[in-house]
Each structure stands twice: as C-alpha cells, then as structure tokens.
Amino acid sequence: MFGSKISRFAVAALLLFSMGGIAHAQHFAQHYDVVIAGGRVIDPETGLDAVRHIGISGDRIDVVSTQPLSGATVIDASGKIVVPGFVDLHTHGTTTISQQMQLLDGVTTALELELGTVKGEALADLYADGTASNFGASAGYMSARMLVKNGIILRSGTALPMPAGLKGIGSIIDYAINGFQEALAPTYQEKASADEISQINRVLAEELDKGALGIGLTLDYMSEAINEAELRAVFELAAARDVPLYIHIRRGINGDPAGLREVIDLAKQTGAAIHICHITHNAMVNLDLFLDEITVARNEGVDITVEVLPFEAGSTNIGAAVFRRDWRTIYGIDYGDVQRADTGAWFTEESFKAYQRDHPDAPIIHHYLNKGQTRRALSDPEMIIVSDLISITTLDKKVPPHNTAFTRVLDLFVKLEQIISLPDAISRMTLKPAQRLQKMAPAFARKGRLQTGADADIVVLDWDRLAHRASYQDPYAPTVGVEYVLVNGQVAVINGALVAAVKAGRLLTSLSE
Ligand SMILES: [Zn+2]
Known about the structure:
By secondary structure, this protein is an alpha/beta fold. The chain has helices at residues 11-20, 25-29, 96-103, 121-126, 141-150, 172-177, 185-188, 194-209, 228-241, 258-270, 279-283, 287-299, 327-331, 349-358, 371-378, 405-416, 422-429, 431-438; strands at 6-7, 32-43, 48-57, 60-65, 71-76, 81-84, 86-88, 107-117, 134-140, 215-217, 244-247, 273-276, 304-308, 313-317, 338-340, 363-367, 384-385, 458-461, 482-487, 490-494, 497-498. Zinc ion is lined by residues 114, 218, 248, 277-278.
C-alpha cells in the first residue's frame, strides 16, 4: 500500500550496517518503526540543515543520525526536504475534511485560537472516530459573551440551529457574520453590565481550567458592544492566568492604528501577552507603521507576537455588517474589486446592490491587499505564518484557498521570489508558533522540531516539483510536491495522496503531558 518509494525493509541500509563495524553496532541493533532516509533535514531550533536519517519509534523521533538506519517502514527522502509538521495557530477548519485538506498542505497541528470555543469538550465529540491532525482551541470570548448575553452555546465546527429568520448552516462564522441581526444584538451590539462582565470572565476561566490554549478575542466583530472596562477585564484575566490573547483588533478606516495601539497599551498596563491576528488584513495601507509599533512594543518588554495570512483578499457574506457600513472607504476599494465566490463574476455597483438585497448570505471575495503587503509582512523576522481557513464542510462548497496557505508561501515567496530563505520560512511555520504556546502548554515544546524526543510530526517535500495550484475558483487543488506527511509517527500522506483512514491526531491542551 505504500507504493514503490517505500520498501518494507531497507536492505541497502542493512548491508551498510554490516560493513560498518562496531561503530554502528548500536544503530544496527535498533530497528525503528519508521525511517525517513537520506533527506535534507531542517531543524529550526538547532539550525541543523544537512542530510540525515530519522528513526521513529511509536509517536516520537528516536534519533536523527548521519548513519543509515533500518526500519519496518522506510521512506526514501533522498533529494527531498524534511521539515517539522506545520503548526497553524489560526484555522477555523475544525471539520475532518478541513484537517485533511490542511494535511495536504503540511499542517499537522491545526489550532482554533482566534475565535476559540466554549464547552471545549464538544470539540472532542466532533472527532469521535479520531482526528486527521492534532488540534486544540482557545477559550472564545465571542462564545462566552454569547452564552451570557444570548444564552446560546456556540461550538466551533458544530452546526447549530440558527435563531429564527437568520440564514446559514449554524457554524460559529455564521453567527459572527449575522451579528448585525436583531436576534444577536445582545452579543454583538449591547454593552455588558459589570455583573455580565464577571460572568463572561468566569466562563473563560472555567475553560482555562480545562486546558484551553489561551483566549481568542475577535474584538472587531463585537466592536460596538465592548467598551474599555470590558476589554480591560479580559486582559486582566489573561495576565492573571499567564495565557496569551489572540486578537482580531478593531478595524477603523483603512490603516487607522487606533485598534493596535489600544491592545498594546492594555498589554503594557496589565502585563497580558498578546498575539495580533492577520496583520496585513488589519494594517492595510499602514503596514509599515503597524509593524514598527509592534517591534517597539516588543523591545519595551511586551510579550507580543504577530501573524500573516498570506493571501491578498478577504471573504465573508455580502450581507455582513462591514458591507452595510462604508466598506469602500474602510477597505480603499470599489465595487469592481469584489467578486462572487461561487462563479468568480466581478460586481458593478448595480449588480452588487441587487445581489446584496436578494442573497445576503452569499459568500463574496473582496480584494483589498496586494502581494507587496504580503512580502513586506514576510520580511519581518518574527512574522508567524497561518492559514485563517474557514471550515470546509463539503468539497462542493468553495471557501477561499487558505487550505494551501503554507505551501503558497513556500512556492511563491520562498522558491520563486526568494523573499525569505527556506529555513527561515520553516521556522515561522513550525518553531515560532510552537514557542508561542509552549510556556502555557508544555506539549508544544515537542512540536516544531526535528530532534530526539520530538513528536514525529514530519513533512517531506519534493522541492523541485513543489507547485502551488489552488485559486479562489479552484480552492481544493492540492499543492504538488508535498510527498509525505506524518502525524504522531503515522504516515497520513503517501506520495502526495491522503490516507483517509489514518486518524493519528490528538487533542492538545495546556494540561497535555
Ligand atoms: Zn479574524
């Protein structure tokens, strides 16, 4: 079943061992479950970038060796690049199909940190028959607020009945983009009383007790509702619990830095750690200023990290709140920069208004960034790479091609344009996101590394063949050249093809060993 490139027994390697004498007796005695033989191994933490053989026992890397190894399964990686599995801090892809599409992009750990969830044990129910990749979630502020203000329990990835009169399949995103509707006004528009603020923070604290990976704060979606007192309270909670806040900051008119300054000031005052989501999509024309202010804050001692979603468009429903405001000024674009997600057709003022009136729940794609902004973000040495994938429920329904975010960076910005080096890009996809979490969640100290004792989450790339092919019209076209993907030592992608039966993922919490 493993195809021609894997032999069940590495005869050549064994011959080498028997000729190698006593120095290799130790290796000879070892027989690994899986061996990845002779690839260019990149470990961003130690700086290793050399041809090595990796021996895996069970779910861990046992050895990274200069000498050939023998194993029950041997993957010939000669001429290939071997890197840690990618750790995605920002995906909403909590369905099995989303995880599988992300596996084909090299993502072995897919985390829902921006929106998060409450009653996080529901996530485990979603995956009763196992998960394709490792997963985990933050405690979601929006979910906690909805529980307190609307009495609705939101569960990421779980379809819920929508309140009467609202459209959508009932995903958490559907609730977010229906925030302008009367039925959800308490969550999205009403101020919270002092008592409600403490209730919200009690819900979040309970989630943190159960191991939630920090607090997800989609502030922009609740911009009208949340005042300074409410915001300060959640910063104080994050500081007291020593967990990060993952923040979608308030958006003003194109490039207004007020939303960034607000959270940096609160981080300084409270000591909370903050992570700024999809920087290009919030900074827009003022990206240089935003990145400078983040660097200054970091140098002043603020625990601040930042991520980029490496695509130049946004996607939401045409009826979403922002498209009922002065969106052309906010984004600095016009009707002709927006297209239908289903057909790709571009709008005019007339067709936009008619479509918005008749199909408020229809997804659209609004192009408001350019590749120059993505390049600029990637040139920041601390920039973490994420997907911001919208949950895929069926391959018949298109979502933006964020399921290919990591290999788009590798193909377009590393291989073709050489904006950043390959080891640097790999570090931003593996080590840096793992480091963001490992202080609070020690299990992440074994992620994002190719070392003895690390989790065997591994990607083998055929660099010469690597080609990103997905587009907004064809979002599920997998990238060519992602040859093998291992999750906890099990081979989940073989010769570029998904092995759907492999469900080797695990729930990751702050309590995980
Ligand atoms: Zn966001």
